[in-house]
Write a structure and sequence with these properties.
Four copies of one chain form a homotetramer.
Chain A: E1 2-6, H1 10-21, E2 25-29, H2 37-41, E3 45-46, H3 50-54, E4 59-62, H4 67-78, E5 87-90, H5 96-109, E6 112-115, E7 118-119, H6 122-126, E8 130-134, H7 138-151, E9 152-157, H8 162-192, H9 197-206, H10 212-223, H11 233-249, H12 255-269, H13 281-287
Parallel strand pairs in A: 1-2, 1-4, 2-3, 4-5, 5-6, 8-9
Antiparallel strand pairs in A: 7-8
Helix pairs in contact in A: 5-8, 8-9, 8-10, 8-11, 8-12, 8-13, 9-10, 11-12
Chain lengths: 292, 292, 292, 292
C-alpha cells in the first residue's frame, strides 16, 4: 500500500522502517529532515511537508509527540488534504478529548480514523514487537490490520470507538507511573532499615512482580541510574496529566495520580525532567533523607 | 529433626505438612485444636499447649497471625521453655519493632532466631512453592536451610539481621496493596470512558504486567468478585499498617501508603473487611459513581 | 463617570447598584435581561448588547462567571469596541493564564486593565463592604480607585502586575476550600468519638478560629445544612481548578489541593454540586460511615 | 484548696502560678527541680517526688508532655498514692486511648478524673487567659471549676465523658496543623507567581482569616522566621499522630492528616523539629524550588 508516515522520533523511525520492510511504499516526513536520511536508504521517499507526505496515500500513520503536534500537523496540514476514503492511523499518545475531536473531524471529512497507541520502548518498536491497541470502525481497522501486524508482537482489538484504545493506553501509562512511585517509596522504606534497594527489588522482580515494568524501572531504581532515558520524566509527566484530565472529565477521583503529579512536579523542580521517568525515585529518597 | 510448629491457619497447615513429608518429627499446636486433626493422619503429634509442642524440639516454627499472637504465644509461652541452642523460625508477618524485640530476647536466652516470612497464598504453601525470605545469624540460617527448602520454591537469603527479611516482606506487601489501589483507580478511569475493567486489565496482564500480583488481583477486579478471599482486606490493612509504622520510625514519607490507608479505612467501613483485599477496588469505583 | 457594567449575577447586581448610588452614570448588560430591571429603577441604563453597554464609557467593569464568559464577552465583544484610554476593571475570578492574556491584549489596544477580584458573598457586595484586591498600572488603578471604594470596605493594593491580584484571589479561595475540608475531617473525627460537629466547631469558632470562613462554613457543617448556597460547590471546584492550574504552570506541588480536588469530584458525583461548598463535608462524613 | 501540680514546662509554670495567685496551697513537682525555684518565691512548696507533691492534695493537676510521661508519672507514681475522693485534672494533650484508660483506672481507685486540655501558648497560660476544655463527671467538674477559671479566659464544658475534651483538643490541633500546611502551599503558589508570602498572608489575615492561628503562624510564614518556637514542630508531629491514631480507631479517613504527616516527616528530616511548627512551610517552599 501507499503509506504516509508523519513523525520520526525514536519510536517512529523503527515503526516506519518495519512498514517499508513489509513491502509497502512509504513516504515519510519529519520536522527535522535529517532524521529521515537512513530511511531513504531503506527505500522511503522523504517529503518536504506533511501535505506532500500524504499525497496519494491510502493510509496515513503518525507518531507525533503530543496533542499540540497532532493538532498542528494533522488537523492543520494533513486532514485538509486527505482524499475521502483514506485511513488515518494515530499512534501518538494523545488526550481523550483530542481523540474525540479527531474522530469527529475525520468523520466529517469522510476519512477513516483508527486509534493505535502502542506500548514498548524504542528498541521494541524497531524490532516490530510492540503491543498495539487498536480501536475504530471495524472496516477501517480490518483494512489496516496487516500494517499494524508489521509493527506489533500483538494487536489488541479494543472495539469500535477510537477513544477506547486511547483511554487504555493512558490507563496503562498511569499504571507504570504508579508502579515507579510505589517501588520508590518501598525502596526508601527498606533502605532506611538497612536493606539496599537492589536487594529488595531483586526479590520483588523475581517473586511477586516478574514483569517488564518492574524489571526495567526497578532495575534503574536499584542501580540509581536513570540515563540514558528510555522514556523521559517530562513525557511521563505529560502522560499522567492525560490520565488526570481524562479522570476529571468523568469525575473519577484518582488519589494515586494526585500523589504522582505532586511528586513529578518536585522531580521536575530538581532538574530531573530529562532522566528516565524511573528517576522519580529520587524524590522519595530525598524526602526520606537518603543519599542518592 | 524434631520440630515444633505453632499456628495452623490456612498457611500453617500446608507448611507443617511439608515438613512432615520431608521426614521430620513434627509436633503441632493450634489454638483451635480441631484444625490439627488432618495432620495427625499424616504423622504429626498434636500438643495440648504451645509449651508442650516445643518440648524437646531442635527447631520451632511459627505461623501465627500477627504481633499480638506472637507476643502472647512466643514471648509468653514458648521462649521461656526453649532449651538453649534451639532455633526459632518466625514465618509470621510481624512489625519491624517486634522483630527487633524478638531478636534481643532470643539472644538473651541463647536461642537462635531466624526471620523467615513468606510470599504466597495458601495453595502455594501447600505445594511447598513459597518464596521465602530468610535472615538471621548465618549458622542458624544454615542449620534450618533444609527445612526452609521443604517449604519454598526458593529461599532468598537476606543477610544477618533478622529485621532485614521482615522489612522486605513488609515492603513487598505494601507493593501489592499499591498495585491493587493503582489498578482500581485505572480501571475506574477506563470504565468511566466505556472500557470494561476486564478489557483493560486483560491487556495489562498480558503486556506490561504479566506478574502474579496483577494476574490474581487484577483478575478479581476484572470479575468484581472478591470471594473466597485468598488474603483478607482486614489483614492487608494490618500489613499496610506495619509498613506505615516502619516508615514512621525511620521518617520515610510514603504518600501512596497514606492513600492506601485512607482507602482501606473506607473499605472496612463499607463492611468489606472479609473480602479478598483486591476488594479495595470497590472504593475507587464507588467514589467514581460506578456501579459495583 | 460614565461606566459600563457587564454581568449582573448575584454579585454584580449589588456592585453596579453601589456605583449608581455613588453618583455615576452606569449602563448595564446581562445575558438574561430581566435581571437588570430593578437597576433601571435605580437609574441604570440597560443595554441590549455588551458593545452597547460600553459605548462611550470611561470605565468598564465586569463581574462575569468564569474564563469562558470573559473570553467570549470581553475578548469577543467588548475589547474590540473600546476607545483607547478606557479602563477595564475585571472583578471576575479568572485563571492566571487568562489574566496574562488580557493584560497583553488590552495593552496592545491601548486600553487600561485593572485586576480587581473580590472576597465577599452577595450580601456583602450589596452592602459595598467587599474586600477588593487591585493590581495594574498605578495610573489606571489610581483613576478607578474612587469607584473601587464604592464597592469595598477596603481596597488592597497588590502592585503593578494585573496577575498579582488574580493569584492572591485564587490562593485565598484555595485556603477557604482547604479550611472546609479540614473542618470536615476534624468534625468526622470528633463525631466518631461521640462529640457533635456543632459542639466541636463552636469551640473552634470562638477560640482558635474566630474568622468569617470558619464561622460561615463551620456553621453550615455544624448544622449539616448547605442550602441556600452562598457559593456553590461546582464553583468552588472551578476555583480549586484555577489554583491547581496556576500551581502546575510554576511547578508548585500542592498536596492539599490534590486532596480537595479528589474529594470535590466525589462530592459532585454525589449530586451535591448545587449545595454551598461547605457541603463538601458530606464526603468526609460518608467516608467515615457517619450519617448525614 | 490543697493542690498538687505535676509538670512545670513552659505552660505548667504559668498555670501553677495562677493557682497560687488564686489563694490556693500549691505543691509542685518537676523532673528538673530548678524550674520550680521561681514558684517557691511565689509561695509554692516544692516536692522531691510526684508522690510527695500529691500527698494530702484535694486536687491534682498535671501538665506533662505526652502519653509516656503521663503513663509513667501519673499511672506509675501518682494514682497509687491518691486518697479516694481526690480529683485529678489532666491538662496534658494525650491520646484518646490513654484518656480512656485513665478514666477507667481512676474510677477503679475511687479518684475523680477531669479532662482539661487547653488551647494557648505559654504567654497566654501565664496570663490566665487559656481556652480550657473540660469534661468529666459533673460533680467533679463542678468542684474544680473555680480552679479552672483561674487558668482560663473561658472554660468550655464538653460533657460527662473525659475523652470528649481530649478529642476536641486533638481535633483542634489537627486544624492548626492543617491551616499551617494550607497557608504554606498557598504562599508557595503566590510566591511562584511573584507575590511575596507577606503580601498574600497579610490580606488573608485581615479579610477571610482574622484569627489567632492565621495571624500567629501566618506571621511566621510571612517572615520565614520560626524561632523562638512557641510550639515545636516535633510536638506538632506528635499531636497530628494523636489525631491519626484516634481516626484509625474509629476508621475515619483523614487525607489532609495524611498529607500533614508526610510533610512533617520530611520537615523532621530537614532538621527542623525544634522550629515552631509553622516551620513546616519550609517543606512546601522547598518542594516548589523556592528559596527559604
Amino acid at each position: 500500500m501507499r503509506i504516509g508516515f508523519i513523525g520520526l522520533g525514536s519510536m517512529g523511525v523503527g515503526m516506519s522502517a518495519n512498514l517499508i520492510k513489509g513491502g509497502h511504499e512509504v513516504t515519510v516526513w519529519n520536522r527535522t529532515a535529517s532524521v529521515a536520511e537512513p530511511l531513504k536508504a531503506q527505500g522511503a521517499k522523504v517529503a518536504a511537508s506533511p501535505a506532500e507526505a500524504v499525497q496519494g496515500a491510502e493510509v496515513v500513520h503518525n507518531m507525533l509527540a503530543n496533542d499540540a503536534a497532532v493538532r498542528e500537523v494533522i488537523l492543520g496540514s494533513v486532514l485538509p488534504v486527505l482524499a475521502e476514503g483514506t485511513i488515518h492511523v494515530n499512534h501518538a499518545t494523545i488526550s481523550v478529548a483530542l481523540a474525540q475531536e479527531l474522530a469527529e473531524t475525520h468523520k466529517a471529512r469522510g476519512v477513516g480514523f483508527v486509534s493505535a497507541p502502542v506500548f514498548g520502548r524504542p528498541e521494541v518498536a524497531a524490532a516490530g514487537q510492540l503491543n498495539l491497541l487498536a480501536s475504530g470502525a471495524p472496516a477501517d481497522v480490518a483494512r489496516v490490520q496487516p500494517l499494524l501486524e508489521l509493527l506489533a508482537a500483538k494487536v489488541w482489538p479494543m472495539g469500535d470507538d477510537p477513544i477506547r484504545a486511547v483511554v487504555v493506553k493512558i490507563g496503562g501509562n498511569f499504571l507504570i507511573g504508579a508502579a515507579i512511585e510505589s517501588m520508590a517509596e518501598a525502596a526508601a522504606l527498606t533502605r532506611a532499615h538497612g536493606v539496599d534497594a537492589k536487594d529488595f527489588l531483586e526479590v520483588m522482580q523475581n517473586t511477586l512482580f516478574p514483569a517488564p515494568v518492574y524489571k526495567i524501572y526497578g532495575g534503574m531504581i536499584a542501580a540509581d541510574r536513570y540515563e540514558p532515558a528510555g522514556f523521559k520524566l517530562s513525557l511521563g509527566f505529560k502522560d499522567v496529566g492525560l490520565a488526570r484530565a481524562a479522570a476529571e472529565t468523568k469525575r473519577v477521583p484518582m488519589p494515586v495520580a494526585s500523589v504522582l503529579h505532586d511528586a513529578m512536579l518536585e522531580s521536575l523542580n530538581r532538574g530531573d525532567g530529562d532522566l528516565d521517568w524511573a528517576g522519580l525515585a529520587r524524590v522519595a529518597a530525598a524526602r526520606a533523607n537518603l543519599k542518592g
